[in-house]
Amino acid sequence: MILGFNEAFIPAIIAGTKVHTIREGARWQVGAVAQFCARAQQPDRYEFWAPRPILSIQHIELTSSELCVDGRLLGEAELATLARADGFATAAELLAFFADKPLPFVGQLLHWTGLRY
């Protein structure tokens, strides 16, 4: 399955500092092989990293100021850790990234490493 990314996230994915991604809905399944693509909806789409299986999925709910993973509200420190592992410098940047989406945002946290929350 194609897993599209903003090109700004590519260096962090390749460096191993972005180790998961948040996606709306519930279409992904554990074991699905993700094709890491940039410009996913464009004719010049390209893969920037070798395909990897999705090892686990956690349910995520996001409001303008809070984030729950598998029904558990993350504290400030854990939210900051999740934000960094998702390619953002701060929790505020992560929350701002989703500010234009209808809230609460409900989706999946897709893991291609062993990290869990």
Low-confidence stretches: none
Write out the strand line-up for the largest beta sheet, numbering strands in chain order: 2-8-5-6-7
Strand content: 35-45%
Q: State Rg.
A: 14 Å
**Helix and strand sequence:** EHEEEEEEHHE
Structural class: alpha+beta
Number of structural units classed as domains: 1
Terminal residue distance: 24 Å
Please tally the β strands and state the result. Answer: 8
Helical content, roughly? Answer: 10-25%
- The level-1 CATH class: Mainly Beta
What's the CATH architecture? Roll
Count helical runs: 3
Looking at CATH, which topology would you report? Archaeosine Trna-guanine Transglycosylase, Chain: A, domain 4
Average pLDDT works out at 96
What's a concise summary of this model?
The chain is of the alpha+beta class.
What does this structure look like?
The protein is of the alpha+beta class and 117 residues long. It has three helices and eight strands. It has helices spanning 10-15, 76-85, 91-97, and strands at residues 2-5, 20-24, 33-38, 46-53, 56-62, 67-69, 72-73, 105-111. The chain has a five-stranded antiparallel sheet, with no helix packed on it. A three-stranded mixed sheet has the order 1-3-4. A hairpin with a 7-residue loop joins strand 3 and strand 4 (46-53). It is globular, with a radius of gyration of 14 Å. The relative contact order is 0.26. The model has no long low-confidence stretch (mean pLDDT 96).
